[in-house]
What does this fold into?
Amino acid sequence: MTRSVFTLPSMDLGMDTHTTKRALDTEAVHAGRDDLAGQGLHAPPIDLSTTYPSYDSRGEADRIDAFATTGAEPDGPPVYGRLGNPTVARFETALARLEGTESAVAFASGMAALSAVLLVRGSAGLRHVVAVRPLYGCSDHLLTAGLLGSEVTWTDPAGVADALRPDTGLVLVESPANPTLAEIDLRAVAHACGSVPLLVDNTFATPVLQRPAEHGARLVLHSATKYLGGHGDVLAGVVACDEELAGRLRQVRFATGGVLHPLAGYLLLRGLSTLPVRVRAASASAAELARRLAADPRVARVHYPRIGGAMVSFEVHGDPHRVIGGVRLITPAVSLGSVDSLIQHPASISHRIVDADDRRNAGVSDRLLRLSVGLEDVEDLWADLDGALGERAGTTARPEALAQG
It folds into this structure.
């Protein structure tokens, strides 16, 4: 297994001020918490304040002016909960370190995060977006419906360069894609983008399996509701990017109010500490289930990404709704990335809002099921799937049914 190493300056907490190299697993546990020991703390505090006292109104005015100009986080004590929160800032620091970017900006949901990016680019007069299907259904709908004034050109990865216009403000891809798990050569797409920022939705892969910024992406989007939180109890989104774009995103967040609650920030920071072990354990089970499904005559095709991961999509010969109704251990529900396994029918739920022809052309067939594999024992999960798939029509193994992204 490759050991991912990060280089960062040591915090001034009595340690030697030399360059420290940390592996991903170490960063997941310690990023955003480096100052705790110096404060006599072990667990990060939760700051629930909505406002903060200040007796220096002139100084506060200067700080607000500075924020209005650049969007940089104000120096000194916090001002107001919509401007920023110390607990949320810890999560942002940690996620930026894991993704290898200068900054990260957290929002109340993944869609709030994407909306902020579109507003930032649109405010600069760059409303045109080039996007590659499939995307998460609501992301697709937000672009197609033009709800934020954006105009979208849909293309395949090879057509990105030709689809660019003078008013193109963003190229948007998701890899592995929701729900087909199709993968994109991010470095090639980033090259095709030229000076146009590339946004990669990295929700499925997480920084454990893929760090898009290393391949040229300028923005990395997460529905933090999924793997970053990891327990199905927090709703959040986050964009990792350079500080210039982060400043603009903070300004939009302040103006529109799509802020992340401090308790959610705390839960996300805690979720990051176990992210590597959760993703690797669930990925091992997912790979085994993908192998068994590919050899099962009741399954027409299995989609599993080359980089691995805990998501498996598969198309059945029979009625997919019967499978949904037949599981007992796996929960039939939307969302993904939790410690427990979830299954859903994208054409009925997550991608229902996408035009039926566009959906099918993107590979989201009516017989496709999406499985988010959790941390249960793989034999128990297979027993549940086996029962839900129904009677076997034959016993011929078909390993060629496994389609990798």
Q: What stands out?
A: The chain has two domains: 5-49+85-273, 282-404. The longest strand covers residues 168-174. The chain is about 35% helix and 15% strand. The two ends are 21 Å apart (CA to CA).
